[in-house]
Amino acid sequence: MPRGILVLVLLVPLASQTPSLADRLQAAATDSERVSLLDAEPAAVDAALLDVLSKRGDDALAHLEFPKAIEAYRAATTVAERLHNPLGIAQAQLGEGRALYRLTKFADAVPLVRAAAEHSPSQPLAAFAWRVLATTYVQMANNAASIDAARHSLEIYRAVGDQSGVAGAQFNIANAYFRMGQYRQAAELYEECIKIVAPFPDNAILDLALKNLGSIYSEQGDYPVALSHLEHAIRIEEEAKLDQRAIANTLSILGIVYRRVGRYAEALQTIDRGLKLAESSSETVLRGTLLSTRGTIRHYQGDDRGALEDYRQCAAFAQEHKLRSPELYARNDIALTELDLGHPEAALPEAERALELARQSNSPADLWGPLNTLGKTYRRMKRGAEARQAFRDSIVAIESWRTQIAGSDREGLNFFSAILSPYQELLAMSVEEGKAEEALAIAERAKARQLLDVLTRGRVQTAGNLSAADRAREEELSREAAQWNAAVSRPNPSAATLASFQKAAREFEAFRASLYTAHPELKVRRGEADPLTPDDAAALLPGAHSLLLEYALTPDATYASVLARADSGKTSLTVRKRPREGKRLQARAPTLRPASAGRGRA
User: Fold this and answer.
1) d(Cα 139, Cα 148) in Å, to the nearest integer?
2) Per DSSP, what are the bridge partners of residue 560?
3) Stretch (H or E) spanning 251
4) DSSP secondary structure letter of residue 473
5) Stretch 7-15: mean pLDDT, rounded?
6) pLDDT exceeds 80 at position 2
7) In the listed set 86, 121, 156, which residue is the last one of a domain according to the structure?
8) For the chain, percent helix, then strand, then coil, each to nearest 5?
9) pLDDT value for 596
10) CB 141 within 8 Å of CB 103
11) Per-residue pLDDT for 144 more than 70?
């Protein structure tokens, strides 16, 4: 530096670091703190402050920063209340409720979302809030409340002429029916959604409806139809560049279908990819489902130790986040795997917990599996009476669920053959205990139900000569009874809820009894007639020295019921068992649904 030159260094004061009012409101821990801050600076409380806080909440929600979103929305609610801005209040309450939902704090989200739905001055916002409430109730296994909320939404969307909204509300109703195991109603509504949104660029609803239809047909065993819907969904996701959550959800369903058709390597690869996407997008519910599915794939690859690790991780994760369905299936699968490993005592508490969770929804789709697993556990523990009751209860759930299956005769056949396990277990117990007549009745009952499913979904109509009005009334009463049945299954139902359930059940049973009186053939067509007895079978024998043979195949054995008439005219019934290797059957027919071996896994 040249000598003699004076260098001046100017110190520029830094800008004030005092937090803005929006910052302080967002950092406040309680409502009273936020109110005090507003009282201290009344001139700063204006629409601009509300806009800043609302935008912060929206940005945080979009970037999956849910705690930060909650802080911003709570501050926005306080400001909107001070400004007497009902729309601002509703928007902030709805935003906070959505953030709580993403954190799986469903019970905390409900009052906020309901308040937004009931008090919003904006019809579109109210309709959307009712939809969010319907989605939240489904996660809480409160399907009746979900349907009620979705119908509020549907009414508003129809009034304002929003067809895309109509499709969305119907989608919510379909989801509730899906969770209740009422697949026929769910499938019809999903198909309606697809038709409604076809002329509109609503890729999200179309994508979700296709995926859920894929799930329904996968559950029923019609894998080609399931794959066609899922592949269509993936094309939409790729073309519309939907977010990672949508793709992860599709991958979770695809992994299940690949597993069910024996494509285990593809299934594992698909699920691992889905897990990475779910973790990166903070999808806690989906992550639980994916962990459970990966455990099942490992089981079918012969890695039961690895399967247990995934199931236990899923169960702990689901319990922590209060995710009923993922925990239910994980507990049930832990029990089944412990049975495979020869540990019935370890299986028992897991099966009991799974059944406890299933009873919260009271859906036959949820109930049959844990009941069947509990029966298997009791049987291994030599607790025969309890095993029998559990298998009987599982069969009741299956036959209730059977009437809700969507589709054609092929779907009906695959559905029933996939869940024959409790019938087969009860048949084996009857043979072991020398109860030949009971064994024959159980075998005939299972065959009759399966045949009825084929006829029902083929060209034979089980509605008989019922008028359109009678059919519509029966379906209406059945839906209402199912909704109230789900409501009373939740903890501490109110007296009004119990009374409503009893009234709905009485009306349904009375109407159905009147139908059977007026149309006696209807009971037979529906497979509700009494099963074949030895006396009925004896009447089919032409004379002495004649035999009637009835076969029943299970994964473990072939059972032959032999009814013979002696010279004296008396008949005798014996049941003979011949062991068989179930895995050999799977090797010859690799496309059979693995659950037909009685595991009941997803």
Assistant:
1) 15
2) 551, 576
3) helix 244-260
4) H
5) 43
6) no
7) 121
8) 70, 5, 25
9) 25
10) no
11) yes
